[in-house]
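To the wet lab folks,

You asked to see what we're planning to order before we commit. Fair enough. Below is the target structure as tokens, and below that is the sequence we designed to fit it. If anything looks off to you, flag it before the synthesis order goes out.
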């Protein structure tokens, strides 16, 4: 299974993003727009980046009552997006409502269930009353999402191999928490892996931000990661 690269466009302003996107045009296909940029610039910015030729992963992690999430999916469906996230922790009724809205208003859109944030580990889960280890919680939520009908998940690369054993082979697994081997620090990510190891474990896509955004040459950094994925 081939693994592709998604750039996490986690920068403070569209002005900061513009030169990076120019350099990466033609180098990679996917850009993730998250809460920071979407809150600042809204749907028009999604259209702007899509207009540059990138596929858009809109990472809003929707989590509310089923009707509200379904209406949010309906509102977002006309945008030129290919992926959209919601929290599995919202429960099966919420996920099914979101899926019904997606199928009605944008059949090509891939809804992704977020299992456990890569910034959280087992102690962090215990703080919010989840006593199961992080891998067990990821598996529980992944199975819940699959039963609800979702065809994609966001998870730590450390849980990919486990999920591949338990979920349908067609399930798309998108993994943040990726750090090239030469990157010593993990910042706020606690469950991380190299691009090659994530691909070998069975990731469908890896999401990389800072190692590309903060590189002296973002295009070269992206090419190096893509080359590592190709070798894997």
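Sequence we intend to order:
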């Amino acid at each position: 299974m081939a693994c592709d690269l998604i750039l996490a466009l986690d920068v403070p302003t569209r002005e900061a993003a513009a030169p990076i996107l120019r350099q990466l045009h033609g180098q990679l296909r996917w850009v993730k727009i998250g809460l920071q940029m979407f809150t600042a610039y809204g749907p028009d910015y999604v259209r702007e980046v899509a207009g540059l030729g990138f596929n858009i992963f809109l990472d809003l992690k929707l989590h509310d009552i089923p009707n509200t999430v379904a209406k949010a999916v309906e509102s977002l469906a006309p945008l030129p997006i290919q992926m959209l996230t919601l929290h599995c922790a919202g429960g099966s009724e919420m996920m099914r409502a979101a899926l019904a809205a997606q199928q009605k208003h944008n059949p090509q859109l891939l809804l992704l269930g977020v299992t456990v944030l890569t910034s959280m580990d087992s102690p962090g889960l215990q703080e919010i009353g989840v006593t199961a280890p992080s891998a067990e919680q990821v598996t529980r939520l992944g199975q819940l999402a699959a039963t609800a009908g979702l065809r994609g998940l966001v998870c730590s690369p450390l849980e990919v191999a486990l999920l591949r054993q338990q979920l349908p082979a067609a399930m798309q697994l998108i993994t943040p928490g990726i750090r090239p081997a030469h990157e010593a620090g993990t910042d706020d990510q606690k469950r991380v892996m190299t691009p090659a190891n994530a691909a070998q474990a069975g990731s469908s896509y890896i999401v990389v931000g800072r190692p590309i955004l903060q590189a002296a040459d973002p295009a070269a950094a992206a090419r190096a990661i893509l080359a590592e994925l190709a070798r894997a």
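Structural context that might help your review: DSSP finds eleven helices and eight strands in the chain. The chain has one domain: 4-231.

Thanks,
Computational group
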